[in-house]
Amino acid sequence: CMPGVAFVPALLVSWSSAAFIISYVIAVLAGHVEPFVPYISDTGTKPPESGVFGFMINISALLASITMYIRYLLIEKQNESSHFVRSSCNMFTLCVGLMGCTGMGIVATFQELAVPSVHDIGALVAFGSGVVYITLQSIISYKSCPRWNTYFVCHIRMAISVISCIAFIPMIVFASKISMTKIDWTPGEKDYTYHFMSAICEWTVAFGFIFFFLTFIRDFQRFSLRISTEIHEE
């Protein structure tokens, strides 16, 4: 069912989805957050969900890094015969993606209430770099058509990128208008509307990333990694 290295993005998608859902369920059942659209980080701030969130998001960052690197290698291999994109552009896209993974690690390590400034910087880097990464990958996908990608897949990737970009901007704008750092939001209190709109946009961008990596599975099915060992005799 998973030829080549298709299991890598599949594992990334399933693990990341589980990380969001499990930490959310634990936080709601523990009464730490309201069930109606909390921030993703709100569901991983207090124990015991903070331990689950930190562990699983760090693993997600590692899986995302591996997926991005394999994607880089795949494009390099395809580019040897098609020459549809500059190698420097491919490398730049990889670096942007890895920067986003670093931001994920910061978010997972520094909880929202413990070190809010560092946590917010990590979140900004993760979401900002992630949006740029999937947009660049969408453009590269179009350049590789029709030999390496179908236009249908490219349209899906670009649609996800556009939606994520549109959601990212109000996410930052509304979050910047919130005058306090807290996780137990209730309707009607000060800045709740800003929190609510920003949280919706945040979940939209996060699952936009998940659905985008889901489109990598088919590409990765026809690509395998081989490790060769050469022994030189004197």
From TrEMBL:
The chain crosses the membrane at residues 51-70, 91-109, 121-140, 152-174, 194-217. Residues 5-222 form the CWH43-like N-terminal domain. It is found in: Endomembrane system. One of its GO terms (biological process) is regulation of autophagy. InterPro entries: CWH43_N (IPR019402), DRAM/TMEM150_Autophagy_Mod (IPR050911). Its main location: membrane. This is DRAM1 protein. It comes from Motacilla alba.
